[in-house]
Amino acid sequence: MTKTSGTLPPRWRPTAVRWPDSRPLLVWNQADPTGGESCSPLVLGDEVSFAVDRDRRCVGVWQGNRRLPCAERARLDPWALGALCPRCARVKDSLTAADQLGDATPHRLFLIHHGDAAIALAVTPAERAHQTVLEAGVLASLALYEGTASAVRHTADILRSALRLPDRVRAPLRRAARARPGDAYQRADDLVAARQVALHHWRQFSTPLPKSTPVDHAETYRLPDQGLRPDAELSPLMDTAAVSGRLVCVVGTDLYLENVQRGLVLVDGRRMFGWGMRTALSSLGFTAATRPVADRVAMPPEVPGRLAHRQPG
Ligand SMILES: [Zn+2]
Predict the structure, then answer these.
(1) pTM (2 d.p.)
(2) What is the number of H-type helices and E-type strands within the chain?
């Protein structure tokens, strides 16, 4: 998207935002159902400009170095959050589950900080743990334990129940927390305190990692301590819609663009995935619809909040 060499070749579809080497990349698939993959860096401070065509389709599933095309070349709804149709999503889930069946891949358990939305637990393959944490938009993290997938998940289940941590933290809550993220010292204190509570509930069958240090990610995202308060968020894209602005922050798969007319606009990157798209160095304008940012007050009270009980009870 921010390729500096000019426009991307036609007929590519974005499929993911990834964070290798602590830098965000937009991943593209060729529109040809069996075509290859490419990526372009999302450079903070750069002008971003893209327009979608009339065609949003499932991109199929990657199995190793091979792309399994979508059998139906399914059209995707503008509201879909990703580049896969339901059938291909099930294929991907089954492939992921099969990969993990052998339990041979080391996994890691983290305490993760989503600002004042919640502290929660995350299980990731150890090999790409840091990348996964960034892709999830976690503000800070603390490694608790490493072991086989089943042992790590079992430990996570015990701690989640004992500490009354949420299974998941919904995106609107995580985004609202970015308006007042606080600073890295506060987050580190919260995680160390949560670790103390977790150790109180630890079971003998596993051994926690030796005292580990909280890792803060806000600077990596370029999220300022005073937070970001977008003026609007991008509505689901429609045919030929164009978006442009200066990229000021990327958190997980969320892009924050500063546009002269629209102000700070939150772009859920997942709504871009699957669209045939053209990009340009010069502005394509901003014709896409936006809407007020979802208000956390309107969300159902599904998350019990941050770790309120610092002491075991
Ligand atoms: Zn499909």
Answers:
(1) 0.88
(2) 6, 16
